[in-house]
Amino acid sequence: MINLSNLGIGDRAFITGIHAPDGMRQRLQSMGLRTGREAEVIRSSRLGPMQIRVGSIHLIMRRCDAARVIISADR
Amino acid sequence: MKRLAIVGMPNTGKSTFFNRITGSSSRVGNWPGVTIDLLSAHIVLGGEAVEVIDLPGIYDLHGFSEDEQIVRNFLENNPVELIGVILNASQLDHQLPLALQFCKLGIQPLILINMIDEAYQLGIHIDVEALADGLHCPVLLMSARHGTGFNEVRETLTRYISEARPKPLDDMRNCLHADDAIVQQSDALIDRCVSAPSTLVRKITERIDRVLLHPWLGLPLFFAVMFLMFQVVYTLGGPLQDAVAFVLEAFKNSALIPLENVLSPVLYGFLIDGLYDGIGTVASFVPVIILFFFMMAIVEDSGYLARAAFLTDSLMARMGLDGRGFVMILMGFGCNVPALMGTRVMRSRGLRWLTMLVVPFSLCSARLQVFVFITTALFSPRQAPVVLFFMYLASFAAAFLTAAVFGNRLRSDEPFVLELPPYRAPLLQQVLLRGWHEISHFLRRASTFIISGVVLVWLLTHYPEGSTPGGAGTWASMLGEWLKPVLDPIGISAAMAVVLLFGFVAKEIVIGAIVAMTGLEGTALNGYLATQMDIIQAISFMLFVLLYTPCLSTLATQLTESRSWKFTGISLAWSLSLAWVVSFVFYQGARTLGY
Asked: How many domains does one find in chain A?
């Protein structure tokens, strides 16, 4: 199972689920990280956070949070 | 009076719309069931008085973040006739679920699609009629920034507000429960009503980010921006503070001093040395707070603050803070008060409180004045800069230590996810209003606390009657004697203890207090200082001054921003004990080593 933090710059994948406690999952979903949406990595460095595009919105998130977002190559 | 609540996600131009519809008549106030201040204003729509309330920007009406709870609590406790839902036209796919959540509440909604100009540029077309049909409520396109479509918005608001009735609060409480079907309904509507290019490319923003978020250039540029901001606030603020002090002093000399013959000495002392100087202390903060929030509004509204968070997060994450906290800590080196107020951009309470615990250790310009004075008096020109540098190191070390100690306790469960908005030019009106709101907030909330503190210290240093002001026989010097067992081990004399008490009010008056106490100036004063402390005692004294407590105004701001006596008490207790322990270890260590 791969997650969002495994992707490199320019990679895209579909979100298939979020592994997090209820409150945190709802928070991530409300920021646009919903099942079925396509996510693209815009920026990423080894130490710092990642910049992710989901639909029309750009997010910055830490790697540890990105690791909670489960993805797959197809919907 | 009828109520119109303005809601929407962050970065939708909600505040711009609010300011446009209310002018500058808005004020902050308390609301039933809500723990923070909300901005509201009274306006007239079609002959009817309407109260407009700007609710915090949220992503999800049913979410668990504090802002989301605040919006729900507000709606559950305050009857509202009309809800204005502001959406960002170029992110409708992302924002429509929130609009649908509000539509399901049973309060008349009005969907206001903002930033329509940006959406047109991106090639987005919105079928307003189909959308209004699907949502069963009026939908309007506008640009709050440029005023496009604004007349129509006003007319529609006027038409709906006269007929709108609030929903009973009990029904509202039942209604505020999550609805899973909402996202699917939203997706279906987007498919039908919005056509957008398959990949939205933010060309200009991406081009700027390529430089500002560059792996190597990003951080140096960030520090350059911070340096510039610092320079604007404090080099411009300094002369303005002097001007304020000059005006207050002139008024005192021409209008108040003559009262000495009219009033009794007690009343005169209380009014002039207590109350008026207290007002002066408050007034001295006005220029830097206004300038600071001018700059903050620019950095925030342009979208750069989110970039700053991105750039410094790897460093800050380990401290349990985030990049925005770093900005506040840096700004705290000018003055802690606006830096503490600036932590309001952080919406998670744990994160914000941790930052508010750390900021007071930033070596502010007032403390620097004291250190420069003492180092010039007691150290050689070669030693003095080294000692100053050591103080800055101690300041950073105390900040790191505090974050390490309290980080786990105040850790928040919220994931660190921030929206990275496209770059936008800040609006002058927004920048000005921000400065105005913050300063009125500071004056209303913190001034009583600060003035009472100044009066209290005046009482302690001037009474009982017949004692030399600030000298022997006053309650302050009794307090100094009483604290001897605590202050002796860190090498601080009883006379200097009184100075510490003055320093609690404001570090700027420390030197003045020494001058007033001794009646000495220039070289004679330096000589006096040398009799009070040797070099080791001086460093111990400076370490204590650096850490023990920033000043009364900082404390007042911590209290008004956290709204918690417990938090403020813990912060004060922590800094006092840290100061004592650090000074103790240094002083005793140096003495043991034979210095």
From this structure: 1
